[in-house]
Amino acid sequence: MTDKKSHNISDEFDNEIMDEVNRIFANHPHEYIAKLEEIGFIYHDDDVDHEEQEEADARPLNVNQEYLVSFFHGDIPLSEKTVEIFLEERRSHNPNFPLIRKYFKQANKHILSMLLSGLHRYPVSVELLSDLAFFHENKNILGTLIEFYTAACERQQDLDVFSELALDFFYATLPDGYDALHALKEKYQLGTDKRISIDFLIEMENSREGDADNDVQF
Q1: What's the CA gap between 158 and 153, in Å, rounded?
Q2: How far is CA 84 from CA 3, 76, 108, 161, 169, in A?
Q3: How far is CA 52 from CA 46, 57, 176, in A?
């Protein structure tokens, strides 16, 4: 049971707060956030894109990152050194992802040339293919993505890595309506190791879709 006196005190306190809030909105329409914070409110802007803000604030933190930014701006020509520095930064313990990510989101043409150069040198690199897929999310390069993933799957002989590449290929191109698993299935003869792997992945994806359909509530 609630004490009536305590209930009345609580109501009065709430009314005082509402009166103060209304006063702030009326008297300080252009600085109400600061005024509300002065009386103890914490402001949360749900419209703020924190990732975007993080990227806007990002700055090079070492020599390699300064080099890459200069390259992205077109101040340094593409070379084998560029690809190696990019991979070194990517694999570092504390990569500056916000800094690099903002150039990917801009579909920076120098990044694309670097990735393609890297893939010509390392055609089965899961890292570079993944980055090419991320670039594709920001600028449609479907034909190029299909070309390099298909070539990587063809070259890769480690079946575990092959399966990983095939599945990455599938998910990277699925939003574009391209079924990479069925496209790969047509390339390999029945009974070969790669065909067995692809058939297994297709069965796995079909089973997953079936489970998802069963979970739908009407």
Answers
A1: 10
A2: 72, 14, 18, 22, 24
A3: 13, 9, 25
Question: Tokens for 26?
Answer: 């009326």
DSSP class of 187: T
The pLDDT score that the predictor gives to residue 18 is: 76
pLDDT value of residue 23:
75
Residue that is written with structure tokens 């009974």 in the block: 191
Beta carbons of 114 and 96 less than 8 angstroms apart? no
Q: How confident is the model at residue 137 (pLDDT cuts 50, 70, 90)?
A: very high
127: number of Cβ within 10 Å: 14
Under 8 Å between Cβ of 111 and 104: yes
How far apart, in whole angstroms, are the C-alpha atoms of residue 165 and residue 149? 7
pTM of the model: 0.74
| DSSP E strand stretches across 90-153 | none
